[in-house]
Amino acid sequence: MAVRTISPDVYSIGAIDWNLRLFDALIGTPEGTSYNAFVVKGTGKTALIDTVDPAFEESLLKNLMRIGISSLDYIVINHAEQDHAGSLPLLLDMFPGATVVADEKCRDLLGRLLDVPEDRVTVVKDGDTIDLGGKTLEFIVAPWVHWPETMMTYLKEDGILFSCDLFGSHLATSELFVRDFTKVERMAKRYFAEIMMPFRSSVLAAMQKVAERDVRIIAPSHGPLYDDPSLILDVYAEWTSDTVKNLVLLPYVSMHGSTAKMVSYLTDALIERGIEVQPYDLSKSDLGDIAMTTLDAATIVIATPTVLFGPHPVALNAAYILSALRPKTKFISVIGSFGWGGKTVQTLVDTLSHLSAEVIDPVYIRGYPTGEDLAALNVLADTILKKHEGLLTRSQEGSG
């Protein structure tokens, strides 16, 4: 990635990964990503903030040379994950006088993950500062804003928040700053749902620390930067709230058509009742799209046939991931078809138990759905409608 100036003596020198399509062998990245790294030059000292994925360390070194960096005083590591800290061992060899700056938990992880010697690391606490000479770095410890050791760095004089993964997006773009927020918002929402949603309470605590400072630029570790912080702060306020929408997420898998017939019928029944519904065929759908919908859905209904004695493995995998993401969904249910028996419903309900959601009576039938079975789906749709109306009423009472 080309070197870009963010403000006087502050540079973006990271790398753009245009071709990445799968992160952590799990998360789809249909529009690539970036590994953002920054240099802050003071009158006396120079600091590098974060590194890049090791596959791009040559690009990082070239960028350091382009801005005339022959020595580094500090290498600030906000997060020990390898896509941000993975080039650190090489940099420590290249710059033997550089001191790593990290919080205590990050120091421990750098030792375990990257074999970084403890004596190369200066441990900082929340609110500690380093004066580079006219440029002051303040460290904001933000545990569990992804990992337990995460930290943000605030450049006081320029009002720049190097926010680590917070406010990030997996998006490869030549634009340094956000200019088309409609496009970026979708990728930021996807990123929040996949990365930050399990840690909503920690994100809220971190956002409070951000609000206490005069932040004029937000520079996350992935994706473009914000020179209008309100764009991302406003949507984060919504995403971290307890508010859900009149929306049903309906992930499903069908083997011979019975479950698909039920999904189709329930979808229409919900639409007829004025409920937004989003079915996803799990054999074809992107997990990131499902995660984004989960962020808004008041209800999740998983639809699956029974395979041998339990849910279809694809449906069970979806339930496991939804449980791990811990969305704010209020209600769950199960529909589908079985041949001769099994424990599909109980297995799925148990898997989703981390959601703390109310279980609405499932509609789990034997064989192809009959008229009586479709009538049961109408009852399920009626029940979901009443539950959602109750939510909206309580929300209006709360806002009044």
Automatic annotation (TrEMBL):
Annotated Flavodoxin-like domain residues: 248-385
PROSITE patterns (alphabetical): FLAVODOXIN_LIKE
Domain of life, source organism: Archaea
Pfam families per UniProt: ODP
GO terms for MF: electron transfer activity; FMN binding; metal ion binding; oxidoreductase activity
Family annotation (InterPro entries): Flavodoxin/NO_synth (IPR008254), Flavoprotein-like_sf (IPR029039), Metallo-B-lactamas (IPR001279), ODP_dom (IPR045761), RibonucZ/Hydroxyglut_hydro (IPR036866), Rubredoxin-O_OxRdtase (IPR016440)
PANTHER family: ANAEROBIC NITRIC OXIDE REDUCTASE FLAVORUBREDOXIN
Entry protein name: FprA family A-type flavoprotein
Species per Swiss-Prot/TrEMBL record: Methanofollis tationis
